[in-house]
Amino acid sequence: MMRLNPSVAVAGLLVAGSLALSIPALAQEPAHEVGREAVAPENQEQARSNEVDINHHIGDASEVETPFGVIHLPTNWKVSLGKDAHGEPRYLDLSPTRHLVYMVLAAVLVALIFIPSARAVRQQQARGRPPKGFSGAMEATALWVRQEVVLPNVGAHGEGYAPFLLTVFFFILAMNLLGLLPWGATATSNIAVTAAMAIMAFVVIEVTGMRSLGFKGYMKTIFYLPPGLPGGPGGAVLKVVLLLVMTPIEIIGKLAKPFALAVRLFANMTSGHVLVLALLGLTFLFQSYYVGIGASLLATGVMLLEVFVAFLQAFVFTLLTAVFIGLLRAEH
Question: Could you tell me the residue ranges of all domains in the chain?
Answer without folding.
Answer: 101-329
